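This part of the workshop introduces the protein records we will be handling. An example says more than a description, so a record of this kind follows:
>
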Amino acid sequence: MSKLDNNDDLLVKKAQGGNKKAFNILVIKYQNKVCNIISRYLNGDSHEIEDIAQETFIKAFRSLHNFRGDSAFYTWLYRIAINTTKNYLLSNMKKNKKSDLTIDDADVMDIPNLKEVENPENLLTTVELRNKVLSCINELSDELKTCITLREFDGLSYEEISDIVNCPVGTVRSRIFRAREFIEKSINSIG
C-alpha cells in the first residue's frame, strides 16, 4: 500500500467520522481526475462535466459510510464517477442526440501538441487520426470503452482496472485486446 493510499485511508476515516474538511481535501485531490474521467464519455461543455463531477462527489459523500476499504478510495470514487456519467448519458439520450462535428466545432476543439505540427498536411492527418481514434472508442461497447480508456488514458494497471470494473484480470486483458484490435482495424481501413 502506498503512502498516498494510507493518507486517503486516514482522510476517509476522518470524513466517515463527520469531518467535512477531510472530505474536502479528498475532493480537491481528485476533482481533476474525476473531471477527466467524465470528459472522456461526454462531448459536452465544461459546465456539464463540472455538474456531473459535483454529483459524483455528492454521491460519494452520501455513500461514504458504505466504503469499507476493500479497494483504494480512488478506485471506489472512479466507479461512482463512471456510473454517474452513464446514468446521465442514459437519462439525456433522447433529448441530447449528438450530431457529427461541424465546422463551428473546430474553433472550440482542444487538440494538444498542435504547435508541434509544422505543415498543414501533417496537421490535417493528425486531426483526422485523433478524431478517428476517438470515434472508434465511442463505437465500442461500454465494457470495452471503459477498459481501454482506463488503460490508455489513465495508465492504470490491469489489476486496478479489474477492481474498478469488478471482473477478473483475464477479462480485462481480453477487453483491452478486443478494443485495440477494433481501433487498429478501423484505422487501417481509412487508407
User: Anything to note?
Assistant: The chain has two domains: 1-97, 99-191. The domain at 99-191 is CATH 1.10.10.10 (Arc Repressor Mutant, subunit A). Residues 96-119 have pLDDT under 50 and may be disordered.
